[in-house]
Task: inverse folding
């Protein structure tokens, strides 16, 4: 080894470090996937705590008992989320027949256009019946599997809501619990990294929620002006989809345009598409730079890569969790660079953000220990 040039030795050392880190990350991901029914509720509860923490702290400052404040916060979230889900589902159910009718008309036009090639709706229907008969057992097992997935999702949602209650109630003891569990001499560093990570997650959730609210209001107003059915429900769908950057806006906007096409025709659908595109331009060129730059800074390429990786690991849930977890990782890396970089390096510049230290700032990821 000593006979190798110095650059080669440094490269070898970095390769060893990268391999070790990659192995640890891979094992961690596999363990999280194996114990997803316990890990996912904890992650969702941390996101919920980051979003609801300011409201809970205001109630506590107003003299409300911490347990009562946590319970009121969770009930408010349950009412808001339940109402939004009901509005979205009701709006889509009401417009479902219209969407199916428009798709059927499109299929009829395609069948008539390519009728000479032997394509007809009757042939397609007969083939569909044969396939349904042939694969009926597979479909039935798929339905049973889907029911089990729904049950598991509901159980995780209930567990996440309960964890949000405990995290909010016991958040004042998070720092002391973390310092008690930290190895000797590492308490300050771990506390600083935990503060930085939670600050990044809270900033992402707060900024995304504000952007989602503005997007939903603008699109809802536009759809109401165009007299598109289910405009409020579609606006709620836009709000929910905004928590998955880029992809969520595309899907929710597509649904809005499809509903407009089914009920109001091609011209109104074009106007609806214009409204959606205008809101997306407003978000990309005004809201994102102004709001997200003050909460968490990540390059769009990093966001897209994080979403892709999250989707490959855990599907839709992975896409939802990927960006805030990446923001937390960036916060930890920034804190490590700020604490251990050489004086005068970019990571220690005076203009960089500092870890929160005021009582109203999020201290660390809440712990349930006493």
Result:
């Amino acid at each position: 080894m000593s006979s190798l040039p110095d650059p080669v030795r440094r490269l070898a050392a970095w390769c060893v470090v990268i391999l070790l880190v990659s192995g640890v990350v891979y094992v961690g991901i596999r363990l999280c996937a194996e114990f997803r029914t316990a890990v996912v509720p904890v992650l969702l509860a941390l996101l919920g705590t980051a979003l609801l923490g300011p409201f809970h702290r205001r109630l506590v400052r107003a003299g409300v008992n911490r347990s009562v404040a946590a319970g009121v916060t969770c009930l408010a979230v349950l009412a808001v989320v339940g109402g939004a889900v009901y509005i979205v589902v009701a709006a889509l159910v009401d417009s479902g027949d219209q969407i199916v009718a428009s798709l059927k008309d499109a299929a009829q036009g395609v069948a008539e256009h390519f009728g000479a090639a032997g394509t007809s709706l009757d042939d397609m229907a007969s083939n569909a019946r044969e396939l349904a008969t042939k694969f009926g057992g597979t479909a039935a097992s798929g339905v049973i599997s889907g029911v089990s997935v729904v049950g598991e999702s509901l159980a995780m949602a209930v567990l996440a809501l309960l964890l949000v209650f405990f995290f909010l109630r016991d958040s004042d003891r998070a720092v002391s619990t973390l310092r008690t569990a930290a190895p000797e001499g590492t308490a300050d560093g771990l506390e600083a990294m935990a503060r930085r990570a939670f600050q990044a997650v809270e900033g992402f959730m707060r900024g995304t929620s504000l952007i989602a609210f503005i997007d939903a209001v603008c699109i809802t107003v536009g759809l109401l002006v165009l007299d598109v059915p289910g405009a409020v429900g579609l606006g709620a769908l836009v709000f929910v989809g905004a928590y998955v950057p880029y992809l969520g806006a595309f899907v929710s906007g597509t649904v809005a345009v499809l509903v407009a096409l089914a009920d109001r025709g091609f011209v109104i659908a074009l106007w609806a598409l214009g409204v959606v595109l205008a809101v997306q331009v407003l978000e990309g060129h005004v809201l994102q730079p102004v709001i997200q730059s003050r909460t968490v800074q990540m390059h769009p390429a990093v966001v897209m890569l994080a979403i892709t990786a999250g989707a490959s690991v855990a599907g839709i849930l992975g896409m939802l969790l990927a960006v805030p977890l990446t923001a937390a990782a960036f916060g930890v890396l920034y804190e490590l660079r700020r604490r251990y970089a050489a004086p005068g390096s970019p990571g220690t510049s005076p203009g960089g953000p500092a870890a929160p230290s005021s009582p109203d700032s999020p201290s660390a990821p809440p712990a349930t220990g006493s």
The radius of gyration is 25 Å. The CA atoms of residues 246 and 304 lie 8 Å apart.
